[in-house]
Amino acid sequence: MSDVQGIDIADLNVWFGQGPERVDAVQSVSFTVDKGASVGLVGESGSGKSTILRAITGLAGSWSGSMMVGGEKLGRKRSKAFYNKVQMVFQDPYASLHPRHSVDQVLSETLSLHGLKDIDRRIIKLLDDVGLGTAFRFRYPHQLSGGQRQRVAIARALASEPSILLLDEPTSALDVSVQAEILNLLSDLRDERGLTYLMVSHNLAVVGHLCESVLVMQNGQIVELLSIEDLRAQQASHPYTQQLLKSSLGFVRDVPRQT
Amino acid sequence: MKTLLDVENLSVTFPTRSGSFEAVRGVSFSLGQERLGIVGESGSGKSLTGRAILRLIRPPGKLQATAMRLEGDDLLAMSDRQMRAVRGRRISMVMQDPKFSLNPVMRVGEQIVEAYRQSSGGGRKERKQRALAMLESVAIRDPERVFNAYPHEMSGGMGQRIMIAMMLIPDPRILIADEPTSALDVTVQMQVLNIMDKLVSERGMGLIFISHDLNLVSSFCDRVLIMYAGRVVESCRADQLYDAKHPYTRGLLNSLPRLDAPRDRLAVLKRDPSWREPLAAQIPTSGMPDE
Amino acid sequence: MSVSLGEWLNDESPTSRSQARFSSIYHGWIEFKANRLALLGLIILIVLVLVAAFAPLLSPHDPFEQNLANRLAPLGTDGHVFGTDSLGRDILSRLIYGSRITLYIVGLVALIAPVAGLFIGTVAGYIGGWVDIVLMRFTDIFLAFPRLVLALAFVAALGAGIENAVLAIALTAWPPYARIARAETLSIRRSDYISAVKLQGAGALRIITRHIWPLCIASLVVRITLDMAGIILAAAGLGFLGLGARPPSPEWGAMIAEGRRFILDFWWVATIPGIAIFIVSLAFNLLGDGLRDLLDPKSGGAS
User: Fold this and answer.
1) I need a surface site. Which of A219, C145, C154, C190 has the fewest CB within 10 A?
2) pLDDT per residue over B164-210, tens digit each?
3) pTM for this one?
4) C227 CB-contact burial (10 Å; exposed 0-12 / middle 13-18 / buried 19+)
5) CA distance to B137, B165, B171, B181, per residue, from B161 (Å)
6) Which CATH architecture has domain B1-90+174-197+208-241+273-291?
7) Are A142 and C214 inside 8 Å of each other by CB?
8) Is the CB of residue C181 less than 8 Å from the CB of residue C125?
9) Is C196 an interface residue toward A (CB < 8 Å)?
10) Which chain A residues are closer than 8 Å to C297 by Cβ?
């Protein structure tokens, strides 16, 4: 059995709508993430990879199966204690910050929602941890670049000092140089705090950089579990994974070039 | 090699509260029958360069250039009406998201037929035949069904292939593709690129491929311009992109995570203010194809 | 360590909550100021407020003082710039005192209708399900009646008088606000920043009041200022029909109603308050247009 402090998902189904309009986004998915491990979820848009994260956090439609996360068996509702342990970073930093709330407001509200004291000191510490510094404390989102916004979003997710971070394409909206900064930040934070990561991405190189193993999803199902060594060695058994690996290398011409 | 497009000293400026902001500054290049990639990060001016070629800079933005010639015709001297004739007929543009480029309340087929009607005329029947043939040529398996479908019934990849099909109807000399595949899944992305690639090599078109994806550009294009802060900082053969000289290009390449070369930490790009200044060395304005 | 006020306001990295707030207000003001017409609207309204505040000092006569010997005096008569009405009361003085009533109406309606609409709309939009259905059908019932007719019914039930007129207008004015607030809420509630705050364990009440309201208020404020003209006209309409302000109250609509009898021979009696209503309505519209450019949440905030 896996470590109960991590993530243990068994036979998870997630669906939206009812009757003829029912869409099965995730179908009998099972996987585990050990405490302190980092696992990637890759697949195309609509493959259900983000839906799994949303189901864990209680944001997504109806589900069946069993989910053990952070030592807690999840029911219909999430407890406050659950959100202390599990947090999420969203894909688009331009959409995940309230446009009229300053960095200070975002962080102080988050801290007070978790019932933490000593808010002033914690805000300064959080900003420092994500490499922003206090100069950014009273800025509004429109005064921040994409990378700075994502740092604020990470600071917000870290506010309750969770042990598990769910990362939903945390760098796909960013430029490559900023992506490198955020990926470095994420691996530093993991080392410092012993975080467990479950990261969704469509970019195999990004997943390969941060994670130790990769779950490949297609049409709501997990088709393959790959260790990072196999991924780097381009050794995949499922044809879909092979196709993903091939396209991650760049463009390959179908036919020999004319002229 | 025949030069299709010649751009000299192009700049685009926007007035701001504190003076004017130069989004594109002194960009020069020429395009032959080749795949020219323009890479850069957001705000580097790569998309504006593409739009500027078609003179699609919205006021209060201002476009200036020493020269901008399409097969010898001066694009700067053209009236708005002549420019409209150039857009679509001689230079076509494919945008990032097909959702915003297709008319949502018109069937796909009608839109293609309409494009044919504007470009070449011909009878109704003939136009439909040509539209169906065109859909087939962009690897759409069931052209008849797609012909009668509405844009929202299409997937992203399908929509993008239809857009490319439509852009190619008037047989343009140049196709400008602005991040044409970044909204698509990787597997579909390859399909779309292959179609563009084939059309370009078969028709002898010039392709300007604007993208932020270094990997993709280096494997897909013949030649690459790297833009930073509105300037072209480096220009090189695409297959030699990984040997690029400029520190900015090197920095970008080093910051990419790579499956074949794992690292504990990614190199972080340190921006040097001097990159914003014009290059002392002359950028070669025309590259050689790799044969 | 002396910093000028301008530098303090323009500081890119403010050092306190209040500095950040002032600086964001200041930048909004700079942007607003660039719109000349909106600024004109604001100035007119400020003048209106000042006139109302200092009415006793500004008005040359008692607005209720009758002088039948000098009735229906034309414009420019000595001591009566805008002439006198059918009872010989000074029209200018009545206009000045009437501005108080106009502001009273506008203020009360602006206090009741948008708040009610905001509350109903955001709750319906955020909670959804049967709550949404019940609240929105209730809204539809109100929307289905012509506003003035519904207001007439209320006034008939509650009795004529300025307070009842205001109440009636407010009761008929909220449904559009509820609709707007609900539409905004529907687009906001699925956004990532709402999901993010849910993940901090925030409840529905907190999300609605702290996160959704600030974004809805912008479009509501715009809508209110644009509606103000209509509200003034509705109040004037009720006054004109004799169901709003009672004589001898110098309410502008009631003044027009009085002047109606002499409109052919003594045109100014009805026209002057008409022009006043027109100017104030126009000012609200101009201001609303300016605020719309400034506050539109889709433009990403004042930047």
Assistant:
1) C190
2) 778 877 778 899 998 888 777 777 788 788 888 887 888 888 999 99
3) 0.82
4) buried
5) 10, 6, 16, 10
6) 3-Layer(aba) Sandwich (3.40)
7) no
8) yes
9) yes
10) 99-100
